[in-house]
Design a protein that fits this description.
Elements lengths: L14 E5 L10 H13 L4 E5 L1 H8 L6 E4 L13 H9 L4 E5 L11 H11 L3 E5 L3 H9 L4 E3 L17 H10 L5 E3 L6 H9 L4 E4 L1 H4 L1 H13 L1
Parallel strand pairs: 1-2, 1-8, 2-3, 3-4, 4-5, 5-6, 6-7, 7-8
Helix pairs in contact: 1-2, 3-4
């Protein structure tokens, strides 16, 4: 399946589930991630977001919805699909949409965002989701040719304060500007109410990860509530 920009309308007002596990965790296995993705689709997810080449490959075989793929390399600065090499590998692994760092920060390979997006479009059939940290990032990402823009990095780049829940103010600001690209709300959305608030703030679709697919964190929330 080749995903085209017009096909993104199928994600409007829908839930996207991020299925990821961190290194060293019991669930850090591509087969487990694929099962998480399939379970999420059973529950109503219109797309899934997956990290790592093997995870993407296994998930493509487990679901029939769009797969947003990324490759985290490092922990600081630009580490979400940081270079064109990473991005093309993600596309070749089967991602319909490649999620990349969509900020205005310098990238490790020296390419600017526009050159990276152009390289992905030229070297694959994948669309590009720009993970942004601010309104200025979103504008720059659209100018660079990104097909979708997300608020994934809001609160993590130093441009905006990290909010307790989703950055609704940023969502409203980007939505009001009508940049002509689907706006994906992502980051710190922990409840159905917050997901609805993000949609009402102007999001095209909403990504939820930890609150659905990370048992260790969810268990910690309950444990803390009982012991504090």
């Amino acid at each position: 399946m080749i995903l085209r920009p017009d096909d993104l309308q199928g994600l409007r007002s829908r839930l996207i589930v991020s299925c990821q596990a961190y290194p060293g965790e019991p669930m850090r296995d591509p087969r487990t991630i694929a099962q998480l993705a399939a379970s999420s689709v059973t529950g109503g997810a219109a797309a899934v977001r997956v990290q790592g080449l093997a995870d993407i490959q296994h998930t493509r075989g487990a679901v029939e919805v769009p797969v947003i793929g990324l490759w985290k390399d490092g922990h600081d600065g630009v580490f979400i699909t940081p270079t064109l090499r990473h991005a093309l590998a993600v596309a070749n692994a089967g991602a319909h949409i490649v999620a990349i760092d969509g900020t205005r920060r310098a990238r490790p390979d020296g390419l600017d965002l526009a050159a990276t997006v152009a390289g992905i479009h030229a070297g694959s059939h994948a669309l590009v989701m720009a993970d942004c940290g601010s309104y200025e990032d979103a504008v720059a990402a659209v100018d660079a040719g990104a097909d979708l823009i997300g608020t994934t990095l809001a609160g993590y780049t130093g441009e905006r304060e990290k909010t307790t829940g989703p950055d609704l103010e940023l969502l409203e600001q980007i939505a009001a500007a009508d940049l002509g690209r689907p706006l994906i709300a992502e980051g710190r959305i922990h409840t159905p109410v917050q997901a609805r608030m993000a949609l009402d703030a102007g999001a095209f679709a909403v990504v939820v990860g930890t609150a659905i697919t990370h048992p260790a964190t969810i268990t910690g929330w309950f444990s803390t509530a009982l012991t504090s």
